[in-house]
Amino acid sequence: MTMVSIDLLIEGLVFGVLVGCFYAAVSIGLSIAFGLLDVPHIAHASFLVLAAYMTFLLGSFGIDPLLAGALILIPFFFLGAAVYRFYYEAFEKRGTDAGVRGIAFFFGIAFIVQVVLSLVFGLDQQSVSAPYIGSSLALGEMRIPWRLIVALVVAVGLVLSLNLYLSRTFRGRAIRAVAQDPWALKVIGANPVLTKQWAFGLATAATAVGGALLIIVSPVEPSLDRVYIGRTFCVVVLAGLGSMNGTLIAGILLGVMESLVLTAFGASWAPAVAFGLLLLVLGLRPQGLFGR
Fold first, then answer.
1. CA distance 262 to 200
2. Which domain of life is it from (predicted)?
């Protein structure tokens, strides 16, 4: 192996880790909604794109994208709580066919979000500006974009914060338990429906942060959800449903594999990695790498 190929391999690994942390950040909300709550949240990627456009809108007033992501946290929390409440009353409350009908419900939401964004913002790509977008950190001959370093920091912060919340607080432990034994929650004085509503709001708020990172890392367009729906589900399933630490590690694994495939075989093969991993995990270890 030549020195050039070794350098390319090292660069591919570094960029794979950074992109993988970004994948974890945009998947963490789905890890809660689908992994812990067992809600077929097909619209997750559309909510990501919606958050990216809200970040773009605030950015047009001179607000930093990271600050914009923090500002839309609360509105997205209430959006998620409202969406889950409607889903519960219309589908989950009525019986065992909630899964199939729920998929159709969230698919409809995804379609509506895409159409509304197309009508309001058009089909052209949109981007934001900030001092860390477009600049790089020089490490020898390697140039690492600051926007990916920001994604790494945010991803680690999200994972640590959610882990602490889910493991150290009463409501967090209730969220972990609600999908397993909702009736046991009533014994300890927790309402399963309100717990899931709160958790889905939390998941959507985390998605708002992921959406802000999405437009920081690359320009967005209304149909971008089709690119990320496979990647986010791959990360969540690979991690093991509901595993926060696993989501970070699975995101890094996907990012590294995509980067290595990109380096070795070219860009046309990289998008197939997520679906290939998803099929492999579902066939060999359905509970994921960190599932029980």
1. 35
2. Bacteria
Give residue-wise pLDDT tens across range 130-151. Answer: 998 988 888 777 889 999 999 9
Report the CATH fold assignment for 3-284: ABC transporter involved in vitamin B12 uptake, BtuC (1.10.3470)
Helix extents (H) in the chain: 3-30, 44-59, 65-71, 73-90, 98-121, 146-168, 170-178, 182-187, 192-217, 225-239, 244-265, 272-284
For 224-236, letters b (16+ CB in 10 Å) and e give bbebbbbbbbbbb
Q: Domain residues of the chain, as ranges? A: 3-284
What are the residues whose beta carbons fall under 8 Å from the beta carbon of 214, sequence distance 6 or more? 26, 48, 49, 51, 52, 220, 224, 228
176: which 2 tokens?
């972990």
CA distance 40 to 43: 9
